């Protein structure tokens, strides 16, 4: 009898035979007390009495797969005599139970450098039915195509594996809707939340946003020479960046908002005649293990100002001139120099 059979259904059990006649012949049937079935006595046209099994309460194969009941046939003699038969009732399965996941929600963390093919986790569902009704196949429910590119689920085992490389900087987590469907078409769903863990796979990016070049050599201390943007796409300590300058230049770094750094003239005044060009390297190092770094080369020209007077090669010149030296004769060659450049370094004599 199928477990979905409606209460009230009847099943013929046949006729018991009694060789006696009259009141000594078969009078009725009795059924062993149970929770599901009752027996009713029917009389055929020829006067024989037969039993019908009547279902009083819905069956449940998952609770009881079979029942064994004793049917007794009674006559009306004194003393009464009886005969028995055993009823073996097998309850056949109906697909009345959907699959059930062990958890409604699964959570797992995965490093972003996990290679394709890496296991993510196993989901598991069970079905109280039997046979094909209990055979479960797994798949993804309604899920974005971007997510389906990243993950694959084994239809038989429910094992979820990584199919495509992850990138924390692109997506920090995924939500998968996993479906378990039994052989009768009933389905259940659970959510799998995959957290992507950051690894230090990005070096700091150093960008010169502006450079003031040339810089007058008389620029005061604190003058901004360059603005540098430093960015690291990683998170946490992997994205925390420290900067330092190298090179022979009287500059230092002052951090400003937004991840930029002001490069300032701080340590001493400039002198174009001593250093006409400033060459320095800004190095940004993140806090990851192992650390990654990025660099930017900065060149700043020093603009001349007229801060140097001409200087003769001697403070005093002495020359002896014979009194008969003709007019226009060369007496002495004077030489003065100016370390400034351009018009600031051109000298005139008078």
UniProtKB/TrEMBL annotation:
Residues 1-101, 102-206, 207-312, 313-350 form the Cadherin domain. It is a single-pass type I membrane protein. Keywords: Calcium, Cell adhesion, Cell membrane, Glycoprotein, Membrane, Repeat, Signal, Transmembrane, Transmembrane helix. GO terms for cellular component: plasma membrane. GO terms for molecular function: calcium ion binding. It is found in: Cell membrane. InterPro entries: Cadherin-like_dom, Cadherin-like_sf, Cadherin_CS, Protocadherin/Cadherin-CA. Its main location: membrane. One of its GO terms (biological process) is homophilic cell adhesion via plasma membrane adhesion molecules. Pfam families: Cadherin. This is PCDGE protein. It comes from Fregetta grallaria (White-bellied storm-petrel). The gene is Pcdhgb2.
């Amino acid at each position: 009898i199928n477990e979905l059979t409606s209460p009230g259904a009847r099943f013929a059990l046949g006729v018991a035979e009694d060789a006696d006649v009259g009141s000594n012949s078969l009078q009725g049937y009795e059924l062993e007390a149970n929770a599901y079935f009752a027996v009713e006595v029917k009389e055929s046209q020829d006067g024989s009495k037969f039993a019908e099994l009547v279902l009083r309460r819905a069956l449940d194969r998952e609770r009881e797969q079979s029942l064994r009941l004793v049917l007794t046939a009674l006559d009306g003699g004194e003393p009464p005599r009886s005969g028995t038969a055993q009823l073996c009732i097998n309850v056949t399965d109906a697909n009345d139970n959907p699959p059930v996941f062990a958890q409604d929600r699964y959570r797992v963390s995965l490093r972003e450098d996990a290679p394709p093919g890496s296991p993510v986790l196993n989901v598991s569902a069970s079905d109280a039915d039997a046979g094909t009704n209990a055979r479960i196949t797994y798949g993804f429910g309604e899920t974005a195509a971007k997510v389906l590119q990243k993950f694959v689920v084994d239809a038989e085992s429910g094992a979820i594996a990584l199919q495509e490389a992850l990138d924390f900087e692109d997506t920090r987590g995924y939500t998968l809707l996993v479906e378990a469907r039994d052989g009768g078409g009933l389905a259940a769903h659970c959510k799998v939340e995959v957290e992507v863990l950051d690894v230090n796979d990005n070096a700091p990016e150093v960008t010169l946003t502006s450079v003031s070049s040339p810089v007058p050599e008389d620029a005061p201390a604190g003058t901004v020479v360059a603005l540098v943007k430093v960015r690291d796409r990683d998170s946490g300590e992997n994205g925390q960046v420290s900067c330092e300058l190298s090179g022979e230049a009287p500059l230092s770094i002052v951090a400003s908002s937004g991840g930029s750094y002001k490069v300032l003239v701080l340590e001493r005044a400039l002198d174009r005649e001593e250093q006409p060009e400033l060459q320095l390297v800004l190095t940004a190092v993140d806090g990851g293990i192992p650390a990654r770094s990025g660099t930017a080369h900065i060149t700043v020209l020093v603009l001349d100002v007229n801060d140097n007077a001409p200087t003769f090669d001697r403070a005093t010149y002495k020359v002896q001139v014979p009194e008969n030296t003709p007019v226009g004769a060369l007496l002495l060659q004077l030489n003065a120099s100016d370390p400034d450049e351009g018009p600031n370094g051109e000298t005139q004599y008078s």
